[in-house]
Design goal:
There is one protein chain. By secondary structure, the protein is mainly beta. It has a single domain, classed as Beta Barrel (Porin). Helix content is 10%, strand content 60%. The longest helix is centred in the first third of the chain and has 19 residues. The two termini are 36 Å apart.
């Protein structure tokens, strides 16, 4: 009798949790790495994926409609600090409330931009801010706000609308703007992106525009990309252009190519190369060439270990010189 009562109580408790559909989840990534010209070798966070923890809640409203709320915070496990950097927004990965159905979704708050999604989905090294040539080129650490060209992964004060029509998904975002700490001005952003997946083929095209205000020029970005899965190897390519990316640059444009290849059931090899041309004022220009190679070994469905290297060469056609550096690391990544 006592066992039946306890079983009923446990079942009732878990049924209540299931009805609430609230979950805690995340990813933790740490690695030991070295950057040429810097010493010593250090323990760092987020080699292949930036660590984060999230809270998600969903309620079925009936008629195929759900209410959703998401709060996601980046983490630095090497120093046990929140955020990607000092002063980062608390829920910088995502912080929104919205409605969804089979037809699509509406999100209100801080949302992930379609420009960032296009970049990481059609990129052999995904969302690695340490080893991916394309991500490190387009989403540098100095550009975490709309004033930096709208190159943060998420925008504040936004409304996102996503629609699904068979193999095609369209996403539009409007940001009412944020206060740029560096200039105290107001920026607004708008973006629309599309993705197409059918069989082994994937395609994307995304446009993004940021109005910096205060008489400054708009910052317009375009990305197109594609992928094809040949089973023994998956190939990626994308082309990107940013006009007026900052107060000195007139245009950045470049491309990235890459591939992933499974080796057995547990190992994956990833390779990527990117090349960007930078056109500055006064007819100055520069170029960045970067390649990366990585291998991961899946220890389970949630845990993998990896080793990676990225080499970058920055060449300036002018008096300021050039620079070359290499980043290497080995790490472990766990999802929960």
């Amino acid at each position: 009798m006592i066992k039946k009562v306890l079983a009923t109580a446990v079942f009732t408790a878990f049924a209540g949790v299931a009805a609430a559909q609230t979950s805690i989840y995340g990813l933790v990534d740490g690695y030991v790495g070295h950057t040429s010209g810097k010493s010593p070798t250090q323990v760092n966070a987020g080699g292949m994926t930036t660590s984060y923890i999230g809270i998600r809640s969903s309620e079925d409203l009936g008629g195929g409609v759900k209410a959703n709320a998401v709060l996601e915070q980046f983490l630095r496990l090497d120093t046990a600090q929140p955020g990607r950097f000092n002063g980062d927004t608390t829920w910088a990965r995502n912080a929104y409330v919205g409605l969804s159905s089979k037809a699509g979704e509406v999100q209100v708050g801080r949302v992930t931009t379609p420009y960032f999604i296009s970049t990481i989905v059609f990129n052999a090294l995904g969302d690695s801010f340490v080893f991916s040539p394309m991500v490190t080129q387009r989403f540098g650490a100095a550009n975490f706000n709309l004033g930096g060209g709208g190159t943060d992964t998420g925008w504040n004060n936004s409304v996102l609308v996503k629609t699904n029509a068979g193999p095609i998904a369209l996403t539009g975002v409007y940001s009412a703007g944020i206060a740029d700490d560096a200039h105290g001005t107001k920026q607004t952003g708008k973006s629309i992106g599309g993705m197409y997946f059918a069989g082994p083929v994937g395609l994307t095209a995304t446009w993004q525009d940021v109005d910096q205000g205060a008489g400054k020029p708009n910052l317009t970005s375009v990305i197109v990309g594609g992928s094809v899965d040949l089973k023994k190897v998956k190939m990626f390519a994308q082309w990107n252009r940013v006009e007026n990316s900052d107060s000195l640059t007139k245009e950045d444009k470049g491309y990235s190519v890459g591939a992933t290849m499974p080796l057995g059931k547990a190992n994956t090899v990833m390779a990527s190369y990117s090349h960007f041309d930078h056109n500055f004022v006064n007819r100055r220009n520069a170029e960045t060439a970067s390649w990366a190679l990585a291998v991961s070994h899946a220890m389970s469905k949630r845990t993998d270990v990896y080793a990676a290297v990225r080499d970058t060469s920055y060449t300036v056609n002018g008096p300021t010189g050039s620079s070359d550096y290499r980043v290497t690391g080995v790490g472990i990544r766990h999802r929960f």
